[in-house]
Amino acid sequence: MPEITDEFILSLFSNEKTKEKAFEMLLKKYQKHIYYSARRITTIHEDADDVTQNVCIKIWKNLDKFRSESSLKTWITRICVNEALTYIEKKKRLLNLDDDTYTDFLLVSQADTSTVTASQIEQFLQEEIVKLPPKQRAVFTMRYYDETPYAEMSKIFDTSESALKASYHFAAEKIKKNISERLTF
Amino acid sequence: MFDLDNIEKTERYQIPENYFEELPGRVMQKIQSEQVRRKRFIMSAVAAVALLVVAVGLFFTYNTPDEGTAITQTQQVTEEEALESVATDYYSEELAMMDYYEYLQY
How much is the pTM? Predict the structure, then answer.
């Protein structure tokens, strides 16, 4: 079955009669991308679920303002990253946690929900990713897992490509160093 | 040193069963309930404005003086003014007729 194009979804969305149908198509096409983008930043399923729903509602409310200056996927990812980062900040404030305590909280939550199939090295990698600051975590995972081009990431994060390259490099070096140390013990 | 490229790039997250099958339905439900809430809010706002318009209309209907009353008020003012001016004239004429002795007694 051929993939539904973004143009087709957008044209259906612009018609009041087919708006809901178009949105359902959009959800089916991008829900996993939204969820995983949110999960990488928030780490916990419940938080990722909240962020995913908020993002979907924002898309519904603002899709008619989308001007195709970037791809629909980039636009959605940008909303998702902003929503997830804001969500984390709100949650930290609500729980009155500083960055370190919040990271410990995430590590405990992650340990509770980690899969048995993950190898020890994968487990270490996940833990080291969680230790990164939220924005750097988003940059690292987007580049590492999705191999998103820096030009596209620049639009998503509204940051220069060189700054993103530096952020990824520092994150990767930190992770490599920490995992190496853990493996030697 | 450990190399990031030497491990499989897979993310293993625990996700509840049927999560992605149920998500679109849950989102659509949330959007629809939000639309209903918005419609209710708009309707209440319209009703409140309509009520306010009616209340203001009724207030002016029952509080605006009619033409008859307005004329009477004007007439009353005129009569008062006339009496005052007559009284002033009377006193000044009477005083003028008095001599000094009468004036002191007055």
Answer: 0.75
